[in-house]
């Protein structure tokens, strides 16, 4: 497919298509998503394992086991220390993402990935050997630092090396890796939990070392992105690399010139963080905050983190709970493939709006089903198998809706709309906001469940309506627009054109 030529919506069209080199480069970089996914998926299963609870959180274990059927089931896992185990990681990732913006700008995307992988490896080791709660928490913090670095560098790296007309599909391999990581974690939790008498949780947590090693070794062999090389003054090397990833017969002069021009004007911006407040960057700043905020407020992570806890709450047995989490995890991964094959054809807006509608309908269905059966006091009746099956199917369709919309687009859209001069800073904001709300939901979910009961899903459904309207009104289509030409979409948008004037295609220098 090398040499494919498609007219871009931004007005420019660079030659060069999907070469083997660019595919494998993105494939390996996507390993960064595995470490994030593994962590997202592992804690829910581990926190529902009795030996783990008995050892580190005996009060939760006792509460769960002392419950009488007449007690309020919604509250049996309500413990702030237990949720701190899950959520601490995301606080650390937040801090790391802010620091990583400086590292990615100064030392490149690749080194940031390697550094992130190493931190993750140490975290996995500490968790495997954990004998006290503090070892667990410190291990989680290290994992969090690793994830902050990876999520900062990998999505922008992938968008930078991908040819513009395949950028959506290639970038979404990051999300695919996240979902595979979640699924692998769910599967290992399920398998390890079958072996009674061993510390299943130890193996579940320790296996995080595998994705860590994959990204460390993978990133070691990755080329640096041409944009990043130019950003660091290595123009010759950048041109050679661009030629290699676009194909040896392709004329890369035009693209290279534009990358150099973008880098030249980006040098006028010495303080990317302060510059972000300029009117000119209002659309990028808005989306760097709104997209991750809304992504988390879909409520998806209630399922990712706590599916086993949720299934146990509504009366499933321990094994059935882990099994159901496994089924939803598989749906997540398979449905992500759909977005990979459709995003560059139907565009970002279509997927966002379809996914939002699907999630909303499922949330209403799930709320009704749990509400009818459990009422407000959470007293369980007999849960017939067919009823349980409909709940699991409803959750799977909801997960699929997220998996082909807000999941991958939550990483793709920010990574492609930031101009080079503020790219690292904007991506840090994107990751930090994502992590703040991942943290918040992980931390307060069990309390929310205890107080809001089945209404929890309606709470998130309201946000899904709001975010769909927001996308409909404010997000321009970015499909098929080269990254360095992205300013055109803002200039043509009925709302954003007030902020981005045609003369603004060059970034204002700090002095202005
Ligand atoms: C989100 C995570 C979520 C995952 C689920 C990612 O895009 O950032 O918070 O757990 O998708 O697949």
UniProtKB/TrEMBL annotation:
For this protein, what is any one GO molecular function term?
symporter activity
- Annotated ranges, domain Major facilitator superfamily (MFS) profile: 25-479
Subcellular localization, per the record? Membrane
What's the domain of life for this entry?
Eukaryota
Can you cite an annotated GO cellular component?
membrane
Keywords for this entry? Membrane, Sugar transport, Symport, Transmembrane, Transmembrane helix, Transport
- Membrane topology, as annotated: Multi-pass membrane protein
Membrane-crossing ranges are 21-38, 82-104, 111-131, 169-188, 200-222, 319-343, 355-374, 386-407, 428-448, 454-475
Please state the protein's primary subcellular location: membrane
Q: Which family does it belong to?
A: Belongs to the major facilitator superfamily. Sugar transporter (TC 2.A.1.1) family.
UniProt name for this protein? Major facilitator superfamily (MFS) profile domain-containing protein
- From what organism does this protein derive? Glycine max (Soybean)
- Its gene? LOC100777241
């Amino acid at each position: 497919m090398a040499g494919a030529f498609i007219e871009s919506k931004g007005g420019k069209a660079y030659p060069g298509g999907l070469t083997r080199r660019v595919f494998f480069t993105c494939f390996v970089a996507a390993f960064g998503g595995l470490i994030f996914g593994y962590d997202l998926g592992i804690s829910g299963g581990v926190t529902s394992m009795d030996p783990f609870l008995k050892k580190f959180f005996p009060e939760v274990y006792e509460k769960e086991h002392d419950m009488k059927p007449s007690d309020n089931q919604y509250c049996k896992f309500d413990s702030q220390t237990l949720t701190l185990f899950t959520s601490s990681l995301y606080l650390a990732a937040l801090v790391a993402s802010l620091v990583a913006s400086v590292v990615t700008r100064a030392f490149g995307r690749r080194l940031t990935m390697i550094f992130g992988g190493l931190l993750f490896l140490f975290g996995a080791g500490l968790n495997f050997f954990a004998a006290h709660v503090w070892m667990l928490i410190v291990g989680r913090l290290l994992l969090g630092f690793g994830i902050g670095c990876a999520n900062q560098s990998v999505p922008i790296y992938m968008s930078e090396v991908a040819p513009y007309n395949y950028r959506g599909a290639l970038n979404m391999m990051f999300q695919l890796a996240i979902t595979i990581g979640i699924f692998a974690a769910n599967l290992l939790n399920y398998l390890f939990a079958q072996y009674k008498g061993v510390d299943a949780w130890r193996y579940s947590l320790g296996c995080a070392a595998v994705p860590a090693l994959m990204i460390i070794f993978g990133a070691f062999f990755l080329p640096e992105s041409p944009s990043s090389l130019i950003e660091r003054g290595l123009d010759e090397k950048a041109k050679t690399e661009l030629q290699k990833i676009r194909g040896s017969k392709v004329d890369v002069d035009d693209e290279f010139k534009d990358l150099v021009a973008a880098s030249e004007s980006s040098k006028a911006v010495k303080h990317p963080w302060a510059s972000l407040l300029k009117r000119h960057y209002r659309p990028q700043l808005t989306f760097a905050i709104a997209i991750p905020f809304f992504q988390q407020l879909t409520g998806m992570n209630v399922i990712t983190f706590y599916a086993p806890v949720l299934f146990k709450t509504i009366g499933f047995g321990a094994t059935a709970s882990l099994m159901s989490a496994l089924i939803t995890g598989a749906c997540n991964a398979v449905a992500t493939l759909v977005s990979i094959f459709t995003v560059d054809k139907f565009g970002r807006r279509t997927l966002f709006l379809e996914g939002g509608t699907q999630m909303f309908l499922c949330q209403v269905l799930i709320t009704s089903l749990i509400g009818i059966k459990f009422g407000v006091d959470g007293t369980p009746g007999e849960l017939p198998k067919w009823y349980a099956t409909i709940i699991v199917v409803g959750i799977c369709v909801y997960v699929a809706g997220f998996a082909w919309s807000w999941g991958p687009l939550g990483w793709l859209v920010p990574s492609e709309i930031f101009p080079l001069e503020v790219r690292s800073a904007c991506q840090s904001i994107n990751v930090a906001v994502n992590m703040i709300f991942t943290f918040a939901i992980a931390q307060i979910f069990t309390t929310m469940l205890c107080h809001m009961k089945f209404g929890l899903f309606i709470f998130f459904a309201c946000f899904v309506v709001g975010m769909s309207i927001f996308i409909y009104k404010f997000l321009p289509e970015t499909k098929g627009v080269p990254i360095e030409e992205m300013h055109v979409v803002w200039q043509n948008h009925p709302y954003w054109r007030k902020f981005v004037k045609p003369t603004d295609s060059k970034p204002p220098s700090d002095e202005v």
